[in-house]
Amino acid sequence: MLRSIRSCRSVWAARASRLRLPAVAVGTAHFVRSASQLAHVKVPSSLANEPVKEFSFNHQKDWDLLRASITKFTDNGPLDIPLVIGGKRILDRPTFTQVNPAKHSQQLALHSAIAASKEAKAKWASMPWTDRAAVFLKAADLISTKYRYDMLAATMLGQGKNVYQAEIDSVAELADFFRYNVKYAEELYQEQPLESAPGVWNRAEYRPLEGFVYAVTPFNFTAIAGNLVGAPALMGNTVVWKPSATAVLSNYFLLSILEEAGLPAGVINFITGDPVQITDVVVNDPDFASLHFTGSTDVFKSLYGTIASNLAKDVYRDYPRVVGETGGKNFHLIHPSASVFHAALSTLRGAFEYQGQKCSATSRVYVAESVWPEFEAALTLAMDGITIGDTTDPSNLHDFMGPVIHEASYDKLAGVIEQAEKDPELTILK
């Protein structure tokens, strides 16, 4: 009979001074290895996709709760978003500016710095994986219940999404990532050698990487940001997280939720600032073990080249793993047998939802000549019904399109349109 077992305790205490975000509980999380964890503990088996709220005109309560969350953010601005390094909030650094894309004068002050993410590694990696899983399952529940409308408001205000795009991203997909990652991790850990020779017991031991993970996350999906840092952390890694400068509000709020769910200090370190300077330090560190990246093709190629060059120079202790997702040129092919009206609506949604700022956005359409007149008419008619406005205005939250992410993006798009209008070989549908 077991009378005692060595406890493994990791203490988290976060200080949120000067921060005026919607309140997220802070305190101390204790992780204790119990005797029951010597046996196989299964994670909850009842797993389903997070239901997406409709936000129809018949659901007034949802609208009221969302308006209250938006107002809670805007009435307390500007907000100081700190670095989070080893669980400590650091605000005494130079600032740069994030704006609500729809309100050019509203500023979110951001304090930036860079630090390493190594001290928490041993304790986090040695923690029973079910305890790590519990953090992300709890976070998924907090996102889908207690903080649902705050997550929507943070994503809408910082990234210019309408409520429908924010709902499927920052709540439904993000919660699904955290829950299903736990399911897939459990399946992975259970994969063991099928047979052993007589007198031999073969087993596979799954360990985190030898070093830290660098996660570079995009502006256009809060869920992807959460997944790029959450997946490696779940498997016992520690992470240096550089969020997009235009998504720090929702990303920092997400980190606060993870901390409330029990994430120990130092497991995920949140750093903002000049991306070139941050990256230069991180990818030249000998303990750099992996890149998790979503962003532009050019930036990814540059990072890949730097890592390859460092490998040739024997900079790293191990071979870094590189995981990258970049832009695409997705297309629709409209066959003569297609339902042309539905094809036109799907093309419009694919091209213009979230102002086309998705790697999955439709950027090319190939239409059979026999159905082109019908398709053109249907697409033009549908385009006439698009409404554009401030998607965070509490008095009008129903616009289909909002602002593009920043002024540079607007200028680029305006320049492309101007060039197209001057090209005699192009016809612009209006």
Automatic annotation (TrEMBL):
GO molecular function: L-glutamate gamma-semialdehyde dehydrogenase activity
Keyword Oxidoreductase attached: yes
All copies of domain Aldehyde dehydrogenase, residue ranges: 103-422
Gene3D superfamilies membership: Aldehyde Dehydrogenase, Chain A, domain 1, Aldehyde Dehydrogenase, Chain A, domain 2
Cross-referenced SUPFAM superfamilies: ALDH-like (SSF53720)
Pfam families on file: Aldedh
InterPro entries, alphabetized: Ald_DH/histidinol_DH (IPR016161), Ald_DH_C (IPR016163), Ald_DH_CS_CYS (IPR016160), Ald_DH_N (IPR016162), Aldehyde_DH_dom (IPR015590), Proline_metab_enzyme (IPR050485)
Enzyme class: oxidoreductase
Recorded GO CC terms: mitochondrial matrix
A GO biological process held by the record: L-proline catabolic process to L-glutamate
Record keywords: NAD, Oxidoreductase
Catalyzed chemical reaction(s): L-glutamate 5-semialdehyde + NAD(+) + H2O = L-glutamate + NADH + 2 H(+)
EC number of this enzyme: 1.2.1.88
UniProt pathway: Amino-acid degradation; L-proline degradation into L-glutamate; L-glutamate from L-proline: step 2/2
Record-given protein name: L-glutamate gamma-semialdehyde dehydrogenase
